[in-house]
Amino acid sequence: GRPVSAKMLVNFTPMETRVALLENGVTQDVYIERAISRSIVGNIYAGKVVRIVPGMQAAFVDIGLERTSFIHVSDIIAGSSGHGREDKSIPAMKIADHLHDGKKIIVQVTRDPLGTKGARVTMQLSVATRYLVLQPHNKHTGVSQRIDKPLEKTRLKQVLAQARASQSMDDSTGFVLRTAAEGIGFEQVSADMRFLYSLWASISRRAKAATTAELLYENLPLHLRAVRDLVRPSVEHILIDNSECLVALQGFCADHVPEVCSLLEHYTGEQPLFELHGVEDGIRGALDRSVELHCGGYLIFDQTEAMTVIDVNTGSFVGKRNQDDALLQTNLEAAEVLARQVRLRNLGGIIIVDFINMEKSDHRRQVHDALKKFMQQDTALGEIAAFSKLGLIEMSRKRTGDSLESLLCEGCSVCHERGVIKTAETVCYEIFRKIMSDARTCKNDKLILRVAESVANRLLNEEATQFFDLQQSVGKIISVQVESSYRQEHFNLMPC
């Protein structure tokens, strides 16, 4: 494909920061952080175990927030660090061997509180700079798996070893070079290493002194995190629409990511930054249930508590001639669009894709390969399974905070979060049953029925005969009153 030209846009207000990543002019990722509800992922807390749940091999930990946080046994350091977890020869750890009620522990948040659930935390701590991650309780030293050139990997391991040797550091600390470290040298690695050591020393001092649940280290705000973690070599410009934010970024970059300084630009145009680059349209589209494809097909996204289901439809009819090829083209386009939408919507957990059924195994292979290729850039991607017997593809994606929909929307009070409302016809039949049951106990001969306009129209037109007959049979006169504030499902039957 053509080389990727990327831009980062930072839209800053005191209430909210929004960062968008564009590749070849198309919005790929949107990150939103509100001052009132900042993400706590990455924060490190001194906590206290309040309850062990042996059945779940987990514990609840008070970290000073409204809801207690949750830790699973797999997130506790046990000499072997987290890396031994997959090794079947290591006997299964029991939570009660490591934690007890009232024990003071240091934990880091890996997932924000979501709905009624508290934050998910781990004892496998880490702090990061642009190039390096320090893992204080893990001796593992390595290079990001996303750097896949063997020669570069070997070179970076040598640079890491040299940097360690040059700074008499204690062996119990692990370091991992991040994806952004590709191509960097000894100076940058050792500078990051020194910074992380002093940061970790100050966190450790605060942890020792802590007597109650308290915050020891707060992750950076979004605009600083974005320039540290999200700027890839393809990013050519970082446009910022706020002068204070620009100054803060210039200072931060000079100290921590000097090579990013030259990319920072102040955007002062008349038109809002996100509107000019089509990001607002992208966000609006990512909140829709359906997404149209150029070929005439469309995707339907259904987000549920357990998983997200994506259905691919042909839309406009595909003729018989070359039907197989037309279905293949629709599925290939769908794979590209859904890979972008999954990132943009920040969908986490299990995702099931129902592509249009294809007879040829070669076509299924092409679609599977295309999906893998388009999802390659997604840092949160877990795995993509092969087509199942029923023609579905399952994939998983790491939950990193709320999805775009749950961040920007709330459940609908009209339909009680069902996504549908009862038809006017259904409401009329509910009213008829209510009249019949109330008629037995109600002494009044006259009743008032208050309803929404759509229901009143139905009662006095299509259902007029039944409505009249019902009044005759229960011996009541019922006058209908339209209430403009009533929703379609809402009605009230009361004595006159």
Describe this structure in words.
The chain is of the alpha+beta class. It is 31% helix and 26% strand. The protein has helices spanning 150-166, 186-209, 222-229, 243-256, 273-276, 279-286, 323-345, 361-375, 404-408, 424-441, 453-460, 464-474, and strands at residues 6-12, 16-23, 26-34, 44-53, 58-62, 69-72, 104-111, 120-122, 127-128, 132-135, 141-143, 174-177, 214-217, 235-240, 264-266, 290-292, 298-303, 307-313, 349-354, 381-384, 392-397, 446-451, 477-482, 491-495. Helix 3 (222-229) packs across helix 4. The longest helix is centred in the middle third of the chain and has 24 residues, at 186-209. The N and C termini lie far apart (74 Å).
Question: What is the strand and helix layout of this fold?
Answer:
Layout: E1 6-12, E2 16-23, E3 26-34, E4 44-53, E5 58-62, E6 69-72, E7 104-111, E8 120-122, E9 127-128, E10 132-135, E11 141-143, H1 150-166, E12 174-177, H2 186-209, E13 214-217, H3 222-229, E14 235-240, H4 243-256, E15 264-266, H5 273-276, H6 279-286, E16 290-292, E17 298-303, E18 307-313, H7 323-345, E19 349-354, H8 361-375, E20 381-384, E21 392-397, H9 404-408, H10 424-441, E22 446-451, H11 453-460, H12 464-474, E23 477-482, E24 491-495
Parallel strand pairs: 1-14, 11-12, 14-15, 18-19, 22-23
Antiparallel strand pairs: 1-2, 2-3, 4-5, 4-7, 4-13, 5-6, 7-8, 9-10, 10-12, 16-17, 17-18, 19-21, 20-21, 22-24
Helix pairs in contact: 1-2, 3-4, 7-8, 10-11
